[in-house]
Amino acid sequence: MSNPAVYVPSEEFVSKAHVRGIQAYRDLYRRAEENPEEFWGEVAEREIHWFEKWSRVLEWNLPFAKWFAGAKTNVSFNCLDRHLATPRKNKVAILWEGEPGEQRFLTYQELHRLVVRFASALKSRGYKTGDRAIIYMPMIPDLPIAMLACSRLGIIHSVVFGGFSAEALKARVLDLGATLVITADGGFRRGREVKLKPAVDEAISECPSVRDVIVHRRTGGDTPMQAGRDHWWHQIDESATEDCPAVPLDSEHPLYVLYTSGTTGKPKGILHTTGGYLTEVTATMKWVFDLREEDTYWCSADIGWVTGHSYIVYGPLSAGATTVMYEGSPDYPQFDRWWRIIEEYRVNVFYTSPTAIRALIRQGDHWPNAHDLSSLRLLGSVGEPINPAAWEWYYRVVGKGRCPIVDTWWQTETGAIMISPLPGAIPLKPGSGTVPLPGISPDIVDLQGQPVGTDKEGYLIIRRPWPSMIRTIWGDPERFKEQYWSRVPGAYFTGDAARRDADGYYWVLGRVDDVMNVSGHRLSTMEVESALVRHPAVAEAAVVGKPHEITGQAVCCFVTLKKGDWSHDELGRELRQWVAHEIGSFARPEEIRFSDALPKTRSGKIMRRLLREIVTTHSVSGDVTTLEDLSVVTRLASQQEEE
Ligand code: PRX
Fold first, then answer.
1. Which of 112, 211, 317, 475 has its CA 20 to 30 A from that of 488?
2. Does the beta carbon of 40 sit less than 6 angstroms from any atom of ligand 1?
3. Domains of the chain, with CATH numbers?
């Protein structure tokens, strides 16, 4: 390995940081390692308001953890009520810009009022602790309002990204057993209305559990409403009250379920609970984003993904930050929309994804250069490995060489950031998430659980439980055990490959399972395959991630057809559309390749590994001894060369 560049934080940055200098980090890390429960107990006490304290920090029955069990708290209370007795009362909590350009500045006091009103409306309709709600909304403040109202009452919510199709929505409503759906007529994207309510209608026509659909009016478009079931938000608000106290909930009460792709066709509902989750997302806001009272903080993710849950809504609001939300697309009306937002609101901390960075690089430096970005002091990256060239551009062109970049490694399952520089403490190496946060014990091992040693590639695991960890897969504890806790005995299996260099820096290399990472969004190959084989023309399908300059990976499908007279061009287009309809437009395949057969083992398993090699290196050099018919691979590889 050549020695990568190292960027040391400036003295000015270090002098004001929450954690100052490498020794401060080491001390904190060592203390947490020596006595993790005492450490997390202190953090929980410092960061969160508890109505009642715990008697034990952790109950660990591998793989089931209970953090601060028996203690009582409430997420909505911590994100809102507790700030009202402080100078934050009239501080802007959510600073929102709609794509057409409207603005809403909600102070903590105003946000509290809106959340309480909505919670009271839910309560008066009979919703209570333990009920389940699906939230399917655009990026408008009413989305966090819905989340906070649910958490105020202990209603377990599941936010479904607005880009998911009716089919995907239905699967989630059914799996969760939701009785309530909160949605909007639509949202704005690239200057057009994107309707949401029709997908809800389609999805829940086969979901008898749903009693109420509450619809926020965002676009004002034509929206059919079903009498008795559908209610406009503004209408139910008429009878709402401003008296709806936060319910003291057990620390282990489920907060939300977020569905993510696993290695099968069925998405898994990742369950996060209350006290431990909130403790860790609040603490990491300070450690990683070095949050200061006066900061304007912007995470550009969509709230439909975990990044938005933890670092647009729960982390920032619990920490009392001003969090920016933008509804639309970065290229609307032109490619400088994000830079305009940073300039206009004087954003200090900006957190985005490598895919977005690469897409913006392609548009040219003149877009960011035309704006005053001098308010920025810290940049962040999440969702996939950031390639050093994109890192350097982000550092130089956006941060003007002044702003540390925190490359944060974590997952839907981890709930909070796990590996990341502390910006006032850790020298940066472009492309590395650097070191674990205090209280987090990762390692890189082989399948026997043996550490692989410096600079060797292996499986990234986490050895010890942490407060914001996944508690189970909703309704499927066996799958939870099998997926995360059975590969390396006693440890949490992340599904990522990584190596650690001589300085102890982690370099995450990507997934080791059949999960793709497209634009930082997780997508399972099996999910796309199941969608494809539901099409009447398709006999078999195998899907792999193909390297892509902007999105990291793109979806590439190998398809064999049933007998018939198919036009490949037409069918290719149709199948791409089909997958978008079945899963969501973000899953639309980049490429469909037709083949007369797929490479299989003698026992009939499709060898995706070989297909991955074909799309990555255009040839096959790996082990083919288990292959049933070698000529299939030769044909597929030569087909690629011809293109
Ligand atoms: O492969 C890793 C990659 O994204 C996966 C988690 O995806 P998801 O649950 O959708 O959460 C994304 C946002 C937290 C990981 O298993 N990943 C995430 N962040 C990084 C990363 N890979 C490398 N570097 C990162 N900073």
1. 475
2. no
3. 11-437+452-492 (3.40.50.12780), 515-642 (3.30.300.30)
Length of the chain: 643
What would the two tokens of residue 91 be?
Answer: 């501080």
What distance in Å separates the CA atoms of residue 469 and residue 63, rounded to the nearest whole number?
11
Distance CA 425, CA 356 (A): 27
Whether the pLDDT of residue 252 is over 80: the answer is yes
Q: CB under 8 Å to 85, separation ≥6 — which residues?
A: none
What CA–CA distance (Å, rounded) separates 124 from 540? 50
Give the burial string for 556-567 (b: 16+ CB within 10 Å, else e). Answer: bbbbebeeeeee
Distance between CA atoms of residues 461 and 8, nearest Å: 28
Quick: pLDDT tens for 117-159.
Answer: 999 999 999 999 999 999 999 999 999 999 999 999 999 999 9
Tokens linked to 205: 């026509």
Q: Is the separation of the CB atoms in 548 and 362 below 8 Å?
A: no
DSSP reduced 3-state for 222: coil
Strand 322-326 versus strand 296-299 pairing type: parallel
Q: Which two tokens stand for residue 494?
A: 């992340």
Residue 178 has pLDDT above 90, yes or no: yes
Any ligand 1 atom below 6 A from CB of 552: no
CB atoms within 10 A of CB 574: 14
What is the rounded distance in angstroms from the CA atom of residue 175 to the CA atom of residue 276?
Answer: 25
pLDDT tens, 452-488?
A: 999 999 999 999 999 999 999 999 999 999 999 999 9
**Amino acid present at 590:** E
For residue 266, the model assigns a pLDDT of 81
Dist CA 448 CA 493 (whole Å): 12
Alpha carbon of 449 to those of 61, 249, 413, 493: distances in Å?
20, 38, 21, 10
Atom 5 of ligand 1: nearest residue by CA position? 411
HSE-CB for 609 with a 13 A CA cutoff? 13
Residue nearest to atom 24 of ligand 1 (CA): 385
pLDDT at 640 (0 to 100): 61
Token pair for residue 496?
């990522």
Q: In what order do the strands lie in the sheet with 212-216?
A: 230-232, 212-216, 180-184, 132-136, 156-159, 254-260, 268-273
Q: E strands within 356-473?
A: 378-382, 405-408, 442-445, 458-462
Burial of 85 (0-12, 13-18, 19+ CB in 10 A): exposed
Q: Packing angle between helix 21-34 and helix 36-47, nearest 10 degrees?
A: 110
Q: What is the per-residue DSSP string for 315-376?
A: HHHHTT-EEEEE-S-TTSSSTTHHHHHHHHHT--EEEE-HHHHHHHHHH-THHHHTS--TT-
The C-alpha atoms of residue 473 and residue 257 are separated, in whole angstroms, by: 9
Residue in 382, 505, 507 to alter for ligand 1 test, most ligand atoms within 8 A of Cβ: 382
Atom of ligand 1 nearest to the CA of 301: 13
* Residue 607 · residue 626 · CB < 8 Å: yes
In this prediction, residue 551 carries a pLDDT of 92
